[in-house]
Amino acid sequence: MKKYSIALIWATSLLVATIVNAGPQVGVGVDQGFGVSAQFDNINLFVGNDGFSADYLFDQGSFSEDIPFNWYVGAGVFIDNDEGYGVRMPLGLKLYFAKNWNAYAHISPELDFDKGNHHNNNDNVQFGLSGALGVRYSF
Hints:
Elements: H1 2-19, E1 24-31, E2 33-40, E3 43-48, E4 51-64, E5 67-80, E6 84-88, E7 91-98, E8 101-114, E9 124-138
């Protein structure tokens, strides 16, 4: 529980620090299950039926005027419902397809620090790859 509290405090502090100066983007998507997606400036948050994630986008840009996608790279944390938690690095694309609307997709290499199962009480560290897909509206 202590690990979950630390992750929640970290995500909340990032949100409070950026929400003052950023117009929110809110929508739905699939990341930690199906759920609600939000972006505040450089902070991506997701709350789904399988868990929670928070990412800080440390670099963003566009390819060229001919390519309608923007790209982003971030670092973040996630908590899933199977008592797992970890760190990840989303590598994504965003497409603005209508006024105030965008779609996004990313893949995330991740390190998952799961608690041991009932046969093995040792903690496990696993490398994995996850993905996300969603749509957001900018206010």
